[in-house]
């Protein structure tokens, strides 16, 4: 694709042809370009398998089992997850439709509301969070791999007693092995990620269901639906609603950059169908597994587990333990690829479109995820709470601003070619490429979000901070937004590239 485009594109809002400016190489490369509609490959099944993997992540299991520990019983946990699933279905469908229509990734999508240069702000916030969690999740997976290696070769335990930069020799071997595997998968692009997710989804579902059945058999086919400390009345309902809200907040990153995947979706119908089976329905299956695992263990010995790994370690058969550990590794890699690897790749491409492609950006992201020594980050509450927690708090306002601009101000009328031009008259050039109205709205609402996250006085509403932040972001932006238009709806097909993802 040439970095220069000429000609006319039909404006759906009028019968006249609308010229578009020259595509700038500082904003355009094949990774950032819109994808052609013909040849897109992400079907409803592919979108479903994204959620089949991500919903069943180890972190999500720890969160949901934690609801049991906080005093919610079986039906209350299902209700909390069900409510969260309905909210997520709606939010992710709105976010996904944006990608299906425009064919562009999140950093380019952010140019609509923040400007061609201002889009670096949301892109870098999302990318920084993702890179840090990529490293942390790789480390957590390496812990499982260490357990697996020692189970297969007990003599390897001698390599696990020293320490260099915070990891033992076996720890470094495990981490680097998983790091290399992920880099290899991603080096083949989004198509390989799509195939891996499609493979991993059924493996994870089968494994977790099998683990739940095994635990149920150990508990004589009965479970504890509640604990002696179960909540009742108003406290119970507040915990249910708070749990649903936190469940949505967990996906605060994904609702922002879901367009990274749906830009390759075959249709809006595929997004709705994939989301429906993958989110509310899959989350109920997830909830049933959580209740079975936690309730069965509590029935057996009165102990509340923290994660599925606690159960895997107790599998008496070595072969079954190995298979279960492998499934957890497959799962963690699948979640890491989709949730934490794709976002920084596009963020870096948006920063350096002339120098980078998908593979180079992937390697740089992975290297950063290694050199930050993520196990030290994970073991530092200050880093997790203040750095990652602080950045995470801003995701709600970002989502509100971007959604309000796209759906309420522009009514989804987007001039896709104008997203790739530095022309001063371009629709998204604003003031030197930055929409200061969006920046001001972000600053104001980010301060409010950070106060809710860190000031003890706001602890009572902290569980609802993502929704409050998103709502404030939308409201403040709608107050300051320029509604004069015109908002042209122009297809990106003339500058689009074939969808190889």
Automatic annotation (TrEMBL):
Recorded hits in Pfam families, A to Z, give: Transp_cyt_pur
User: Which parts of the chain span the membrane according to its record?
Assistant: 63-92, 127-152, 164-186, 198-216, 236-258, 279-300, 320-348, 360-378, 384-409, 438-458, 464-481
Region annotated Disordered, chain positions: 1-22
Keyword annotations of the record: Membrane, Transmembrane, Transmembrane helix
Domain of life assignment:
Bacteria
One function term, GO molecular function aspect: nucleobase transmembrane transporter activity
PANTHER family in the record, alphabetically? NCS1 FAMILY NUCLEOBASE:CATION SYMPORTER-1, NCS1 FAMILY PURINE/PYRIMIDINE TRANSPORTER
Q: Where in the cell is it found?
A: Membrane
User: Which residue ranges have biased composition labelled Polar residues?
Assistant: 1-18
User: Which organism encodes this protein?
Assistant: Mycolicibacterium hodleri
| Family per record | Belongs to the purine-cytosine permease (2.A.39) family.
Query: What protein name does the entry list?
Result: NCS1 family nucleobase:cation symporter-1
Tagged with keyword rRNA processing? no
């Amino acid at each position: 694709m040439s970095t220069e485009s000429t000609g006319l594109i039909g404006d759906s809002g009028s019968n006249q042809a609308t010229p578009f400016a020259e595509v700038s190489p500082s904003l355009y490369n094949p990774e950032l370009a819109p994808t052609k509609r013909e040849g897109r490959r992400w079907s409803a099944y592919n979108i479903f398998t994204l959620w089949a993997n991500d919903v069943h992540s180890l972190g999500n299991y720890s969160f949901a089992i934690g609801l049991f520990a906080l005093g919610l019983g079986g039906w209350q946990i299902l209700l909390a997850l069900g409510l969260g699933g309905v909210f997520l279905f709606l939010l992710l469908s709105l976010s996904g439709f944006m990608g299906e229509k425009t064919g562009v990734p999140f950093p380019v999508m952010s140019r609509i509301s923040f400007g061609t240069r201002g889009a670096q702000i949301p892109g870098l916030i999302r990318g920084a969070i993702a890179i840090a969690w990529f490293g942390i999740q790789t480390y957590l997976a390496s812990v499982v791999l260490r357990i697996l290696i020692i189970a297969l070769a007990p003599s390897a335990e001698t390599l696990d007693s020293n320490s260099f930069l915070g990891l033992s020799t076996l720890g470094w071997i495990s981490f680097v092995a998983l790091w290399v595997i992920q880099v290899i998968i991603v080096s083949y692009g989004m198509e390989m990620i799509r195939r891996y997710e499609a493979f991993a989804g059924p493996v994870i579902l089968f494994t977790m269901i099998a683990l739940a059945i095994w635990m149920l058999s150990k508990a004589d086919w009965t479970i504890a639906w509640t604990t002696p400390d179960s909540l009742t009345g108003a406290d119970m309902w507040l915990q249910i609603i708070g749990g649903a809200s936190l469940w949505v907040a967990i996906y605060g990153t994904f609702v922002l950059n879901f367009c990274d995947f749906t830009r390759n979706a075959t249709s809006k119908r595929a997004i709705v169908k994939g989301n429906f089976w993958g989110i509310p329905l899959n989350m109920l299956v997830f909830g049933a597994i959580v209740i079975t695992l936690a309730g069965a263990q509590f029935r057996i010995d009165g102990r509340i587990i923290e994660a599925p790994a606690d159960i895997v370690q107790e599998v008496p058969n070595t072969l079954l333990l190995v298979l279960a550990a492998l499934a957890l590794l497959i799962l963690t890699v699948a979640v890491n690829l989709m949730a934490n690897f794709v976002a920084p790749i596009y963020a870096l491409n948006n920063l350096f479109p002339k120098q980078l492609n998908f593979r180079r950006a992937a390697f740089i992201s992975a290297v950063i995820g290694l050199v930050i020594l993520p196990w030290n980050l994970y073991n530092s509450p200050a880093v997790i709470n203040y750095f990652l927690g602080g950045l995470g708090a801003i995701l709600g306002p970002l989502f509100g601003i971007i959604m309000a601009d796209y759906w309420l101000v522009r009514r989804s009328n987007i001039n896709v070619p104008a997203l790739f031009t530095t022309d001063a008259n371009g629709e998204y050039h604003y003031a030197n490429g930055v929409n200061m109205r969006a920046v001001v709205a972000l600053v104001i609402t980010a301060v409010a979000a950070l106060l809710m996250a860190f000031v003890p006085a706001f602890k009572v509403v902290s569980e609802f901070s993502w929704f409050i932040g998103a709502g404030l972001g939308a409201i403040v932006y709608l107050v300051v937004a320029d509604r004069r238009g015109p908002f042209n709806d122009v297809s990106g097909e003339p500058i689009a590239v074939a969808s190889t993802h």
